[in-house]
Specification:
Keywords: Hydrolase. One of its GO terms (molecular function) is nucleoside triphosphate diphosphatase activity. It holds the Pfam family MazG-like. By secondary structure, this protein is mostly helical. The chain has helices spanning 2-14, 23-39, 46-52, 54-74, 79-93, 96-99. It contains six helices and no strands. The longest helix has 21 residues, at 54-74. The radius of gyration is 17 Å and the shape is globular. The N and C termini lie far apart (35 Å).
């Protein structure tokens, strides 16, 4: 994952885009790209969309992840650390004995 982040940052820096990559604009870009990802599923059966629009979905998902990686770098977050921390929080909110096989939010388990 470190090499991937370095490649993303090198791509950005080769184009002198860091000046535009502040946390606010990166957060906006994540949201916009996530909406473009979601658009591929609009008015479609999810299985049909996942099959018929697979390449487009992969591109939009990549855009979301690239902006997420860039924002983590910009804010000085270690991706593994913040993901593991969130997983630990989620494990406390969704204990297996209460959440197994359920889609309920933690406050209604």
């Amino acid at each position: 994952m470190n090499q991937l982040l370095l490649d993303i940052i090198r791509f950005r820096d080769e184009r002198n885009w860091k000046q535009y990559h502040n946390p606010k604009d990166l957060a906006i870009s994540i949201s916009l790209e996530a909406a473009e990802l979601l658009e591929h599923f609009q008015w479609s059966d999810w299985q049909e969309a996942a099959q018929d629009k697979r390449d487009d979905i992969a591109d939009e998902l990549a855009d979301v992840l690239i902006y997420c990686f860039t924002m983590a770098d910009q804010m000085g977050f270690d991706l593994e650390t913040i993901i593991r921390s969130k997983m630990e929080k989620n494990a406390r909110k969704y204990p297996i004995d209460k959440a197994f096989g359920k889609k309920d939010k933690y406050d209604t388990l």
